[in-house]
Amino acid sequence: MNLITINVDNEENREDVLDEGHHLDWDKALNFHANINEDGKGFDNVFNVTSAPLVLYLVDGMISDAVVSYSLYPYRLIQTERINDINFVWNSSRDLNSLAWSHYKNEDDENELAEAIEWVTRSIDLDQTYSNTDTYAALLFKTGEYTKSLKVAKEAIEIAKENDDDYSTTTDLINSVIEKL
């Protein structure tokens, strides 16, 4: 299935774009117009949206769920197992870090945590930030690698200082690591 959207830059051009009807020629595609007001061509009244993306989840060709949201992040599609291929977010430092942090907060299984460490190290390779370095330190702590966690946590604090970020949670992590050593 192809999910195709048409973005209309100017609301005044909306009717002209839709009246051209190019979207009617698409095969194997569902055509939804979520920002069409009350003219009967869209889903505004049903989904109560203005221009937020409409995402449909299909199982065996049937709609299993629909979400209208500005805050649907790619990592959440992996997290909710709507997409099972990590390559979907493999080049997004932010999404990989968010996914790894979610695993830190919600998983205790060693294999799951090892996978989260792989994701966060890839995130750091793409773009090292305070957030992903802190996530890495937290995952190392949770997996019992206390000495390495301490080193990475200190590195996270240095990055935070350079960017005037709050690093109080990392300080708490360092104190927890020291208690374990």
UniProtKB/TrEMBL annotation:
Looking up SUPFAM superfamilies in the UniProt record yields:
TPR-like
InterPro entries given in the database record: TPR-like_helical_dom_sf (IPR011990)
Instruction: Give the top-rank taxon of the lineage listed in the UniProt record for this protein.
Output: Bacteria
Name under which the protein is recorded: Uncharacterized protein
